[in-house]
Amino acid sequence: MKVRVIGGGLAGVEAAAVLAGRGHKVLLSEQKPVRFSPAHHDPNLGELVCSNSLKSLSPATGSGLLKEEMKLLGSLILEAAETCKVPAGGALAVDRSAFSRAVTQKISALPGVEIVREEVTSLPEGPAVLATGPLTEGALYEALSALSGECLHFYDAAAPIVTAESVDFGAAFSSSRYGKGGEDYLNCPMTREEYLAFWEALTSAETVILKDFEKREIFEGCMPVEIMAKRGPDTLRFGPLKPVGLTDPRTGRRPYAVVQLRKENAAGTLFNLVGFQTNLKFPEQRRVFSLIPALKNAEFVKYGVMHRNSYLNAPEALDPFLRLKARPDLFVAGQLSGVEGYLESAATGILCGLWASLLLEGREPVLPPAETVIGSLVRYLNAPNPRFAPMNANFGILPPLPSTPRDKTVRNAALSERAIEEMKNYTARFRADGKTNGSAF
Ligand SMILES: Cc1cc2nc3c(=O)[nH]c(=O)nc-3n(C[C@H](O)[C@H](O)[C@H](O)COP(=O)(O)OP(=O)(O)OC[C@H]3O[C@@H](n4cnc5c(N)ncnc54)[C@H](O)[C@@H]3O)c2cc1C
């Protein structure tokens, strides 16, 4: 029997590699070059559609830790990246076309993997892995939509997320507008001078150049904060930064403008900047939003992005093993499952490949421990969340240490060490009992 994997992107390739590594036969369907999404151009597999950066290598960062865990899980994507690195300081960056070539060569060389270049237009018979990415469209999108209904989202914009510990609580206060609804929001007040300096910086900051297909879809329904600001110095003060109904307890007065932060997770370790959907370049977001006094040292775990992105409302649509609740024989991997980022997408591909393999081997799938960043990420996807939005790998989603070191570097090193140990134990449990062809763990 051949296991179907639909989509030869970052997630699909990883899923196929794990399945093949455990001795299963795989039929990997990829629509390129028969059909290209508006962002895909390279006929090879594992295409990086935008930046060539796979982010930090340091295990003291969420993305660095993710890499360490993925290496233990035998990531094909990371092996391919090693062969075509380009200098990028402490980050892992690659030559994009050499990378896709290397991915294609590696997956094509695996025994048991058959690659078919075809557009899949209906949901496959299971067990199967669906990994068609955030630009899934056409008949397949319709089929998924019909099955998952309102669980299939399409968003144009997301606001940045910062860690709670990096917010200066001394320069902020908790309160809902007019005192209604408890203390759900953390308010970051600004004086007139602070606001005007922020407004100047925001309206002159550099933005990402949008592709045509994105421009069309974004501006109809959703307004980036910098575009709203350009309408005039007071527009934001009557919009997302309005101070009405808020009194700063430090002054007893209404601030000139207020940025509101909303808890992003139940643990309250992450905050979302309300109304700050933006298309500014990432370094510009750091520079401009750090002018908000309470955010002067803010650590951004996720920057605001604006591009077309279809994803499942994971807490509603998926079970803990990323299977569609409505079709438990169908695993959903990659950005479509509600994670965000190249490597996060690839990581869920590895997990879906492993879980599908275990089922085929008559074993039960098991989640990676919560202490690993991958384990935390899949648990995040499954936790009830009325405002679910895609999430990336970061330390804010990890359970805290039993005693938390005050120093962040020490703390992150300890979190990282704990995660790597846990991932070693996890992979040891699923070593392929002699079935492996050497490519999977
Ligand atoms: C415009 C844009 C820019 C992005 N930029 C970044 C970035 O810079 N950094 C970052 O970390 N993340 C970025 N992302 C987010 C995300 O990391 C990527 O989209 C990532 O490629 C997702 O991996 P995936 O495997 O889920 O999907 P993809 O890599 O998109 O792979 C899906 C594959 O499935 C194929 N496919 C689709 N439909 C079918 C079908 N019906 N039949 C057969 N095959 C099909 C596609 O051709 C593609 O090869 C971006 C996303 C978008 C949309």
Would you mind describing this structure in some detail?
- With 441 residues, the chain is of the alpha+beta class.
- The protein has two domains: 2-156 and 308-429, FAD/NAD(P)-binding domain (3-Layer(bba) Sandwich), CATH 3.50.50.60; 164-302, no CATH class.
- The chain contains 13 helices and 17 strands.
- It has helices at 10-21, 62-72, 76-82, 96-108, 138-148, 192-204, 212-221, 225-229, 282-289, 314-317, 342-360, 373-382, 408-429, and strands spanning 2-6, 25-30, 53-56, 85-86, 91-94, 113-117, 128-130, 152-155, 161-163, 173-174, 185-190, 257-263, 270-273, 300-302, 309-312, 323-324, 327-332.
- It has a six-stranded mixed beta sheet, covered by helices on one side. Strands 10-11-12-13-9-14 form a six-stranded antiparallel beta sheet.
- The two termini are 22 Å apart.
- The site of flavin-adenine dinucleotide has 36 residues, from helix 1, strand 2 and helix 11.
- Flavin-adenine dinucleotide (FAD) binds at residues 6-12, 29-32, 37, 39-40, 47, 49-51, 119-120, 131-136, 140, 307-309, 334-336, 341-342, 345.
The best one-word shape is globular
Q: How many helical elements?
A: 13
Widest sheet: strand ordering: 6-2-1-7-17-16
Total number of domains: 2
- β-strand percent reads 15-25%
Query: What is the total tally of β strands?
Result: 17
Q: How would a textbook summarize the main sheet?
A: 6 strands, mixed
Mean pLDDT: 91
Question: Termini separation (Å)?
Answer: 22 Å
How is the CATH topology of the largest domain named?
A: FAD/NAD(P)-binding domain
CATH structural class of the largest domain:
Alpha Beta
Order of helices and strands: EHEEHHEEHEEHEEEEHHHEEHEEHEEHHH
Structural class: alpha+beta
Indicate the percent of residues in helices. Answer: 25-40%
**Would you identify the CATH H-level superfamily of the largest domain?**
FAD/NAD(P)-binding domain
Task: List the bound ligands.
Answer: flavin-adenine dinucleotide
Under the CATH scheme, the architecture of the largest domain is 3-Layer(bba) Sandwich
Which radius of gyration do the C-alpha atoms yield?
A: 22 Å
Low-confidence stretches: none
